[in-house]
């Protein structure tokens, strides 16, 4: 079970691990993810079908950290995803 945080509306929703939560693609070859070194709590899920990405923060790995701060602290992952040609699925309050 995995939850995603929407940095725009601050809501959370359950993600189906086996499909893109943006376009619903179930093409396993089109779904990738990466995370920063030593940043297992946060990962970027990429979809080659719609070229969107979603940042996923694993709350189990966080103790007192605020998810919004965690998002801000991992902005370099957004930069990396953007360099790869992917767009964030939801607007980011800090970069929009
Ligand atoms: Zn997609």
What's the structural blueprint in terms of helices and strands?
Elements: E1 3-5, E2 12-14, E3 31-35, E4 42-47, E5 52-57, H1 67-73, H2 75-83, E6 87-88
Parallel strand pairs: 5-6
Antiparallel strand pairs: 1-2, 3-4, 4-5
Bound molecules: zinc ion.
Could you describe the 3D structure shown?
The chain has 96 residues and is of the alpha+beta class. The chain has 2 helices and 6 strands. The protein has helices at residues 67-73, 75-83; strands at residues 3-5, 12-14, 31-35, 42-47, 52-57, 87-88. The strands form 2 sheets. The protein has a 4-stranded mixed sheet with strand order 3-4-5-6. Strand 4 and strand 5 (52-57) form a beta hairpin. The chain is globular. The site of zinc ion (ZN) has 8 residues, from loops. Zinc ion is lined by residues 20, 22-23, 25, 47, 49-50, 52.
Précis, in short:
The protein is of the alpha+beta class and 96 residues long. It has helices at 67-73, 75-83; strands at 3-5, 12-14, 31-35, 42-47, 52-57, 87-88.
Query: Approximately how much beta-strand content do the residues carry?
Result: 25-35%
Radius of gyration: 12 Å
| Number of extended strands | 6
Percent helix:
10-25%
Q: Low-confidence segments, ≥5 residues, pLDDT <50?
A: none
- Which whole number gives the mean pLDDT? 77
Please count the helical segments.
2
Largest sheet: 4 strands, mixed
Name the hetero compounds present.
zinc ion
Distance between the termini: 29 Å
| H and E order | EEEEEHHE
Structural class: alpha+beta
How are the strands ordered across the major sheet?
3-4-5-6
Looking at the structure, what is the overall shape? Answer: globular
